[in-house]
Amino acid sequence: MSSDVAAFHKVLGRAKRILAICGAGLSASSGLPTFRGAGGLWRNYESTSLATPQAFARDPGLVWLFYGYRRHVALGVSPNDGHRALAKLAERQPGFLCLTQNVDNLHERAGHSVGQLRHLHGSLFDLKCSNRRCDWVEQNNQDDPLCPALAPSSIDAAPGERLTLLDPAQELEPIPESELPHCPRCKKGLQRPGVVWFGEQLDHAMLAEVDAWIDAGSVDIVLVVGTSSVVYPAAGYAERARSAGTSVVTVNLDADIDECRPGDFAFAGDAAKLLPELLEPVIGKL
Ligand code: APR
To answer: Which residues take part in binding Zn(2+) (predicted)?
Structure first.
């Protein structure tokens, strides 16, 4: 176990296949709140309590306000050097695959090749129909913040007025279901964000693809970046790597050297600062 950068650089220099598993901490220094810990509250709601199909069925307007806010905030921030370092690693290292739990699209905006990136939990900017019998999806919708009831041009509000609802300091007004976006195909279901909520299945085809990549050769390093590693299956990839004897490298504000096994590394600090330094032998200076 080590937090020795030079020792990590030696391991990196020999590595042919690298897997990264990223979480909300990677986007924290871009200004996006994390889910757990200090950033995990939106208004007085636990973010995780709104990310469920039950919450959407109970109060779709509230859940859309939350996601409208998240889309709005994500569009207003920029990728950081951590995203850029991983994007460069993808460019320089063909044997690199990045699994992200983040739905903010900052990896892509940093130039990360989509072939070397998998969104385990979907994207804030993908939309789908909440009617299970309808398979309508729209990818990469960048309307800010999408929900017509919140749009600045909303007919019964002066431009920008409704957007203030996204300000956590404003009183919440319930949004009538008629003002929420409906599916253009079946016209019955409400549109919902194309993210994976608690209790929902991840995309089977994507998971099979990830397994095939892992099984295609030995993985030399698993980078675990900015995640609390409590949500599966993401957390399971590092566990699998540990049992296969792969070096697991944790990059997290609260990375704990005492929790590492021999051969693992733990680097405590901001991923945006650490990743460029850790990956420099492969990616050069950012
Ligand atoms: N640099 C590195 N790590 C950081 C930073 C930073 N600047 N800021 C915070 N962290 C760490 C925290 O210490 C914490 O361990 O990032 C981690 C963020 O953990 P979570 O908020 O639990 O986020 P994540 O692991 O991505 O959550 C997984 O849970 O709610 C769901 O679907 C949601 O994808 C999300 C999943």
So the answer is: 129, 134, 183, 186
| Count of C-beta atoms within a 10 Å radius of residue 49 | 12
Ligand 1 touching residue 2 (CB < 6 A) = no
Domain 34-76+124-195 top-level CATH class? alpha beta
Distance 280 CA to ligand 1 centre (A): 24
* pLDDT tens sequence across 212-259: 999 999 999 999 999 999 999 999 999 999 899 999 999 999 998 888
Please state the residue numbers annotated as binding site. 129, 134, 183, 186
1-32+79-121+202-285 adopts what CATH topology? Rossmann fold (3.40.50)
Reading the block at residue 280, the tokens are 């420099």
Query: What would the two tokens of residue 21 be?
Result: 């598993």
Report d(CA 143, CA 158) in Å as an integer.
18
Contact 120, 234 (CB under 8 A): yes
Q: For the chain, which residues score pLDDT lower than 50?
A: 154-155, 157, 159-160
Q: Is 72 a known active-site residue?
A: no
Q: How high is the ipTM of this complex?
A: 0.98
* Binding positions for Zn(2+): 129, 134, 183, 186
